[in-house]
Amino acid sequence: MSISREDIGKVAVLARIRVDEEQVSALEKDLGNILDLVDQLGAADTDSVEPMAHPLNAVQKLRSDEVTETNERERFQAIAPATENGLYLVPRVIE
Amino acid sequence: MHNKSVAELARDLDSGQVSSVELTRAFLDRIKQEDGKYNSFITVTDEQALADAKAADEQRAAGKATPWTGVPFAHKDIFCTDGVRTTCGSKMLENFVPPYDATVTANFCQAGAVCLGKTNMDEFAMGSSNENSYFGAVTNPWGLASGNKRVPGGSSGGSAAAVAGRLVPAATATDTGGSIRQPAALCGVTGLKPTYGRVSRYGMIAFASSLDQGGTIARTAEDNALMLNVMAGYDRKDSTSIDREVPDYTATLNEPLKGLKIGLPKEYFSDQLSPAMEEQVRNAVKEYEKLGATVKEVSLPNAKLAIAAYYVIAPAEASANLSRFDGVRYGYRCDDPKDLMDLYTRSRAEGFGNEVKRRILVGTYALSAGYFDAYYLKAQKVRRLIQQDFINAFKDVDVLMSPTTPSPAFIQGEKTSDPVTMYLEDVFTIAINLAGIPAMSVPAGFVDGLPVGLQIIGDYFSEARLLNAAHQFQQVTDFHQREPQ
Amino acid sequence: MQWDIVIGLEIHVQLATKTKIFSGSSTAYGAEPNTQANAVDLAMPGTLPVPNEQAFRYAVMFGLAVNAEIERRSVFERKNYFYPDLPKGYQTTQLERPIVGPGYVDIDLSNGESKRVRIHHAHLEEDAGKSLHEDFHGMTGVDLNRAGTPLIEVVTEPDMTNADEAVAFAKKLHSIVTSLGICDGDMSQGSMRFDVNISLKPKGEDELGTRTETKNLNSFRFMEQAIAHEVERQMDILEDGGSIVQETRLYNGDRDESRSMRTKEEANDYRYFPCPDLLPVEIDDSFIDEARNSLPELPDARKARFMEQYGLNDYDANLLASDSKLAAFFEAAAERGKDAKLASNWVQGEFSARLNAEEKSVAESPISGEQLGDLVVRIADNTISSAGAKKVFEALWTGENDNVDAIIDSQGLKQVSDTGALEAMVDEVLADMPDQVAQYQNEEDPKKRKKMLGGFMGPLMKASKGQGNPKLFNEILVKKLGG
Lengths: 95, 485, 483
Known about the structure:
A: 2 strands; B: 8-stranded mixed beta sheet; 11 strands; about 15% strand; globular
């Protein structure tokens, strides 16, 4: 199955990855090839097959409701691109 | 000294023949001298290593040594190391210094091992040749004499090359579709991908969460066992790790193989495999027969769909896992974003390499409205069929054996033009990740002077048996001891 | 044209756990920005979620309280979208197998009838952080303390037909979750937030119209206003022959305006898929039984008990039973005061009025139910008049003194109930007012006579310095004036 240039544009916006016009042709070819590979799945008979999300048939363990974390803001914000007054800064968000 | 195994070095340390500081210095010197050829390290942590070595010597003097105290090794740069840059092979994390340790990292620290640095890898573990690293391709120590630079495989190419090049005796690695076994095979070393959930994923930067598994690369099976002893176990920080007793994996290495039932999946001895490769693998199987094993052909009828299923599931999970790299809290942020959209799209476009972007886009597409059922759900169903094939096979046999890769190490740049050609490198390894079972690659011969890997696949939690089978093979062969020229 | 209004609600209820749903960070409100955001909450590379058992217990308690089925094997999905307050770039939530299945809640309508509102499901999910839009050099600041706070999102069927019903449901839900103790119910801190789905259809028509979703209403009043506003907006459009666009809207309560939240980028495509970092959560019988055994009395049961035990009428019982703290306060006052009716009147009257005036919650009340009960005792035994009682209440409230009898003594509020003394005062006053006495005695109309009786009370209270028992004065007056 091929992927259209329009779809590439949509997916790039959803994935928040800027794709310049000159990259679209290469992506069209590469993604098209990958999707061709993936299309082999269509051949499998999976009518009565349960989807498998995890390799192991295990059940979630739950944690007790106890505070285990302390304030480490300084350590975490030391590696942040932009902070002020303890807040992470991003370009103004218009709600 | 650099040819010695972890087990041997531990004995030398124990007998006082050498100190950890001496050992560490020697390996650090060797990295300095040799790694220019391989580029197997992204970061070398000299100072920290020497400090840790000193502490290890003191521990040993105080009589508190573990089998790892003072032994040098390296971490794949996917495991977060508190205070040490962790890049995952990406520009996105070029300057990322995590304020926390991965559980695997913490376990090795606890055991007193001395980490010499962080090994190179394909960006976010996406690749089979280590050509997708922001920090440059890794060169396979094998085949250099011929004048061609060959790939070490990927994504754990740095770990495999470092071990093959005798820069460290052992290195951690991860395997999502073959990323331990394929580079181990191409570099002529021994690698183990454990059962999904055997080793904690906490602090191991995620590519595809339901497939990723931390594991081991060393030259001998015994060293892999020593590593797994440190790495395996339930971790309350990883909900998908399994709460199940961890055996001493070295305890059963010497069990005889008499009566071991080996299955050869006929789909893995297909025309994708060159006759020369096949010959090496069949010779290896013959060695097992000499050790008392029996061999029969088995079938994994859905194995041919593994690559297709994988290239839906892995990119889909990756597309979400990599959303956190948004230039807000850590990592690369583009210059002068004009608005929020610009911050996101440019930081991610500039911070991620092409293969990572391709996979994010494919994964996003596969999950998007209208395609979810045809791609994602279908792939999950095929995944169960693949798992069922293995379950059926293990009703009849103890282990499966196959080639690890269809061909030996190829020349850099040979397969970079089409991503799909590269994907086919993992044709024999990928189904194992989908099923979540353990598998090893063991050096089993040479073709044109390049190493060939034998893949040994086991049932869930059969790591001890795989290590035993590999170890016994290594008692009667010396492929794993050969040194690249 | 006549229209039917169709309303469904989605309610985010913050669970009162000590820690976040997937990490051990504190959820306490009001901390300095990002001091309660650890590696997991910040979505640092390689970190993984570990679910909080208490969040599941609370969700199960909620499910039991709304008569719902509990999903024995619930699953988490990732909902993918980018926003600065969502560190992972996806919200971990439940789509296919939510923890709480279909259930219902009965609400009381103002006309005295009861109505059943069906709950479609309720799922567990994580809250997002907060974006602060104050000016940081033209930037937005992000605080992730709230990120990862456990929520249940309760989704109703579109069973409500006007704002009153919607508000009644919202209040009932508030009453249930606070009674359960699974949510602090503090709407000003965002502990409960409402999204309202509204559509109109021609009266009697079966097919539903296109709906809009008005998001993030954080008070009952705003919810009522937003519904009125949106119904009017849709009606205007439809009556002009236009059509409704399915969209999310934001309502500004201060200006009574709303606007579309659609951005130019794209229609959202959340790409839900099962979260591979989490396994299915199995809820077994013993977990459910434990949760059931820990259920406190719920508002409906409490209301029935108040009617039975204290003889309250439906209206009073409903009002007092709906808020667990108010109910507890009332019960303390009624038990101590030995007069439930009087206690009910005081709790709903003076006490509630005072809380409202000072914007205080029951928990913040300076006086206890027991103190109010002591006051009730003194009203019931005629020690003080109602005017005196208000003075005592005031003294209790301001903390001037915490003992009712001490206040009565120190302020001299004790009523004179000595009949002899009162009779002497009546005689004196009547002697001073012969004209009025004559007028009274000549009046035939009992109503007018009753009114004229009041004319003597002023002077009598003055004569007794406000301490005469008005009831006794009245009786004596009637007797002396000859009926």
